[in-house]
Amino acid sequence: MTTPPDRTTTAEHPERTVARQLQAARARRRRRIRTGFGRLALYAFLGGFALLMVFPFVYMAASALKTPADTFRYPPKVLPREAEVIVVDGEELPVYSLPVEGNPTDVLLAEQGIEAGVFVDPDNPDDPEDQVAWPLALAEDTGRTAVVDGEEVGVFVVPVGGDTEERALARTTVVGRFIGQDDPSLETFAVVRTAPAAEAITARWENFSDVLDRRGLDRALTNTILVTGLVVLGILFTSIMGGYAFARIRFPGRNALFLAYLGSIMIPFIVVIVPLFQLMVSLGWIDHLGVLVWPFLFNAYGTFLMRQFFMGIPKELDEAAVIDGAKRWRILWRIYVPLSWPAIATLGTFSFLYAWNSFVWPLVAIQTANEEDWVLTTALRQLGGQSVESPNLIFAGIVIAVVVPMAIFVAAQRYFVENVATSGIK
Prior knowledge:
By secondary structure, the chain is α+β, with helices and mostly antiparallel strands. The chain has helices at residues 7-63, 68-71, 206-214, 217-248, 254-263, 269-283, 300-311, 315-323, 328-339, 341-356, 360-365, 376-386, 391-422, and strands spanning 81-83, 85-88, 91-100, 103-120, 132-135, 140-148, 151-160, 163-180, 187-190, 199-201. The strands form 2 sheets. Strands 2, 3, 4, 5, 6, 7, 8 and 9 form an 8-stranded antiparallel sheet that branches. A two-stranded antiparallel ribbon has the order 1-10. A hairpin with a 2-residue loop joins strand 6 (140-148) and strand 7 (151-160).
């Protein structure tokens, strides 16, 4: 006799399938939520870290557009600000920002030397933000007294924040009378010395012209561009030639010579600076721009970089070019160099930054009195000593020195990244 199928089991099977599907869907949804929150947290961390790294450069660029007084402000502000002035009858008058009837208002100083008192809250007399300076002639005497710092003083009714309150007279002072800039009927009183000036966000672009024209940075900038350009071109030429020779030309002692040449990278520049200086003196090159160029036309790192890149180019290209009748010079400049733009851009960027930021050798090789042959690093050193009272000019000079290498790096970034990305690909 055949046993009939269990209808209960058959009916429950689709329900279990749907439950498993719902559970899997909820698990996927939780994973997506966790992944989304993880990415959001990662982006927030990286964004905050990026802002932290960029902030000094932003503050430097903003400080280059400030006035000398604004750079010494405490607490400091990022954006450049300048006190507002208004011309009345051919005379510049400062604009102040004071509360009038409880609202911040731009006012002008109309009268000074008014006898006044400093009124405080008897219960909290030491709070400087809760003190009011008001003319004694306009204060209403209540006839009562209060004890402030162990001394019995009178109590007066004075305006406070758009209303009137009873305050104790702590001491006497002198205030000025201020009237509204747009509405002369508005009137208030404050101590002139501590009255906050009205400020506006401005930019003093003339700081850059001042640094370039009157501080002599224009000649230093021209010298730096000339020296850096010659050094970069020289390094690229000698490195390409040397790298090709070590990579493709066989001659006795090639590997030993390359190792000895590469070993020169291990010698710090400060070790060879004295013999190099003596050599330049014997050649008569000291205190001339040439002394900043000739010693740096050969670069072991550049030769090593180009050699390694050339060795990655298939030799079959050389053989095909030789069969077509090409000589080594043509093979180098028609085949190897066009294929090596990422390496060339990387080497050019590194060489540019090294030559542009060079400081020790120009400081040694160029005399301090020879301003005609200064480069940016030595000129900025002198500017730092001459403009201690005007740090905004120092910041302007630094911005000028930083903008050019930043532009060069951004322009060569595509080749630089391509070189890094392909360096491990065979």
